[in-house]
Amino acid sequence: MTIRMMLISSAAALAAVSGAQAADAIVAAEPEAVEYVRVCDAYGTGYFYIPGTETCLKVSGYIRTQINAGPNASATTGNGSTVANRSDWDMYTRGQVQFTAKSDTEYGPLTGVIVMQTNADNASSQAAILDSAYIDIAGIRAGLFYSWWDDGLSGETDDIGSPVTLHNSLRYQYEADGFYAGISVDELEDSPYYNGETANNFGVAVGLGGKAGAFTYQITAGYDTDNEAGAVRAMGTVAIGPGTLGLAGVYSSDPNAYYNKAEWVVAVEYAIKATDKLKITPAFQYYGNYGIVSGEFDKNNDAWKAGVTVDYQIVDNLYAKATVNYLDTDKADGVTTGFFRLQRAF
User: Fold this and answer.
1) pTM, to two decimals
2) Do the beta carbons of residue 249 and residue 262 sit within 8 Å?
3) Degrees to nearest 5, angle at CA 127 with 124 and 131
4) Which residues of 113-137 are buried (b: 16+ CB within 10 A; e: fewer)?
5) Which of 6, 163, 178, 265 gives a 20 to 30 Å CA spacing to 77?
6) Is residue 17 very low, low, confident or very high in pLDDT (cuts 50, 70, 90)?
7) Exposed, middle or buried: residue 53 (CB in 10 Å: 0-12, 13-18, 19+)?
8) Mean pLDDT of 21-35
């Protein structure tokens, strides 16, 4: 082999080795598998699997803008508190987001709920609150949530609920087709008290209800250990003609955390389904021994309230509500109040 042939052979060998190394250097690694969000239809619409888990999550909420009207109208800021205002009208906006997580266990679905809410009376006066946060499994619920006393008739005239309905509570509720029954122990730290002591005790509430055909019913009772008083409420609705008739009654032994408006109350409404989108609800309520004097119901004061509520669905997930109510008491002039609300749900 001549020197020329040896040089040519060496160059070819080096080129082959260099080419192999270059080819190896640019080989791309295979991409890792991407887990896309999967729909979870086991618990209803809107749920999806949290990637990498078997837990289903749903995000929901609403945006509400409301104008309140009446003497010294005030804006609700959550948990029953209000923002003082000396005008006869007030506007506020609320944003609420709810996270609901569910997963299967040997005891049934394990549910966790967090509800965050911010109420803005204006740009500089806002209140952000934890509206609910609780764990629910096998009928047991523990955490911050609304009691059965938060329920009411469908209109905005009735006044048959607790002054504060959001408590840290421990509850058990049995549920079957068309029926439920339960018992709850409620912390009553932020509830009204009338015996001169700081509100630092607890209450016990029971509730049962259900549905039978066109008829629904609910019975709720509560005993406030701080005030050593209790209340009981019964509600029912039945579909009649073009609407639904609602009836309710409350009895309270003395002012307490579960009811403190009057010693006894009766309420009635008729929710008329005028169209698929329009509902009109006239209503009336009568209060016996209305108001509180020296920690007891005022035996010399009765009252009545009448009003009408109009609900209209503008488009899917966008609703309008308006209500006007008149309250007349034996010891004071009549008062007219109302509000107009727009709400977008998601």
Assistant:
1) 0.85
2) no
3) 160
4) bbbbbbbbbeeeeebebebbebebe
5) 265
6) very low
7) exposed
8) 58
